[in-house]
Model the fold of this input.
Amino acid sequence: MLWLNVLITGTALTRRRRLRDRSRSRLERRERIMPALFFTCPETQQRAPTGIQTDVKSLRASWTKKLKVNCSLCGKVHELSVRETYTDGIMLDAIEAFRRA
Done:
């Protein structure tokens, strides 16, 4: 009888802790919004925003897709790979952070 009581109590405590810890709660779990995607304009060689913000799930789903983006720097439409746009952005951010350090 004592063992059953401990199991029930332990389960209830675990459930209460999980509900208090919002990062583990299924109801409160949301994908984190990532920084906006930027690309390097092939005409000006400057970074330009794509105007797209994404989350991890959407990025994973569109990883192999292409984007057509109106460039705010040169006015042309560029076709970009989502994968290349993301990885180039990560690399440029890392280089900038390294230079500042």
Observations:
- The two ends are 62 Å apart (CA to CA).
- Confidence is low (pLDDT under 50) at residues 1-15.
- Residues 2-20 form the longest helix (19 residues).
- The helical segments are 2-20, 56-61, 82-100.
